[in-house]
UniProtKB/TrEMBL annotation:
The Glycosyl transferase family 28 C-terminal domain, residue ranges: 186-310
CDD domains: GT28_MurG
Protein name according to UniProt: Undecaprenyldiphospho-muramoylpentapeptide beta-N-acetylglucosaminyltransferase
Any one GO BP annotation for this protein: carbohydrate derivative biosynthetic process
Provenance organism: Candidatus Berkelbacteria bacterium CG08_land_8_20_14_0_20_39_8
Signal peptide: none
Amino acid sequence: MKNKRIFLVGADTGGHVVPVFTLAEELEKEKNIEVFVFGVGSEIEKKFYSKLKNSRYLKIVAGKSQFGSPFSKVTAFCKSIIGLVQCKYYILKFRPQVIFLKGNYATIPMALAARILFCPVIIHESDAIIGRSNKYISKFAKKTFVSYPVEIYHLPIKNIKYSGPILRPEYSAKNIRQQQNILPKILILGGSQGAHKINELIFASIKELSSGYQIVHQTGNQDIKVAEEKKKELPLDIQNNYQPMTFIENVFRSIIDADLIVSRASSSIFEYAAFQKATILIPYPYASLDHQKANAKYFANKNATVMIEE
């Protein structure tokens, strides 16, 4: 039997990369399916996609032009044209049966190439407000899958279908955690790149927090040195209660172990909900279309989280 070929595009951030990585892992278990994963070459892509056993990881060029000077917008446009040519080449070379796109700017060149070459496209939206890229692509996509109930989107999108979020297999289990720690554990997350405002909030109260809790803090690259200095300033008897790190590699284990999670309001909300974790969500106020606030409000209105605006 001839192998089926599937393209998966998820790039740049954890919210786009991890779902594609999860989907690729599941597809690798199927016989007669070849998986091709596309990204823009970000560090988080390399961390995850390098773990795939039988999928091919290919880099494409894409331009991010939402904000910036006229020059940066022209540069982004030129990159997108290069990306379009690359994607047309890959589609013609490998002839995929379907292309799966996980939102953001990096999917546009592949979506346009697929439309030109009449290759079917399906997309997935993680947020309560459909992003700009997905909103555009949905006009010609074969199917648009969404994480929240269809009716909250208030969009006349043809072929929209509720699928729920794409979660790691580890999140399907309940009550996995075995309580081994005396102190309750607080997990601080600001997305794969950290969140400076959340970090500042934690730094200002780290002594009080570390006195009564274990703190696992994903700071991102920007604030890790400050966090390490803050740890050194703590009394010796509570220093080990504060564990700052640039990036948490095995974040699902940290989520399982946490009693409380303080986080932005990206698609990771579903991972917290899968384990019924108490959460404080601080939406990123400059997110595209203010989708993080919409995500947090949906859960807060159902008394499933506490939302604090930055």
